[in-house]
Amino acid sequence: VVRYYANRSSNGDKLRAGIDQIESLLAQLERTQSIDEVRGVEGKARDIYFSVWNHILSAGSFVYSVRSRRPPADPVNALISFGNSLLYATTVSGILNVHLHGGISYVHEPGRYRFSLALDIADIFKPVFVDRLIFKLVNHGILQEKHFVSHLDYTVLNDKGKRIFVSYWDEMLKRTVIHLTLKRKVSMRQLIRLECYK
Fold first, then answer.
1. How far apart are CA 45 and CA 166, in angstroms?
2. How far apart are CA 125 and CA 118, in angstroms?
3. pLDDT (tens digit, 9 = 90+) per residue, 49-68?
4. Which of 49, 94, 170, 191 is the most exposed place for a label (fewest CB within 10 A)?
């Protein structure tokens, strides 16, 4: 995702610096000995990834500062949380369609009341499905400040903002790409199901 925007942005140099930092972290994965160490490397890479968001977001009113989840503190965090919830639901559906046990995961700790396998699989798709959609909606002015409701300690999308996001989400899931292994077109939604089969 960062590489995609580095080739299309006036901030390409700053984005390429982030890419270099992430690639140096990837080399550390070869030396990890436990899931916790993998999580540590992933956490550092995610921090670097989020640190370059403001070089991708072009709408001045949309600024990323720090990740806040429950509740989201600002419009960017509200978009991340909403997009992640849609991806989680789509991934759970994919897991159920291929008859996997959603409570057995590999990276995330299994939880009593969650599909932790969906968290594992969704992480693969977050940057391409959720983050790129956020950048598109913000940078093209499709979502604006008027599509959010802010209270003292949280910000959420209003109903119109949610409808816009879901409309573009559904369109994105229908979009097709050439699958490198299958050598045929598959929808973005099918990519999740194929990952479940793997």
1. 28
2. 11
3. 998 998 898 867 788 887 77
4. 170
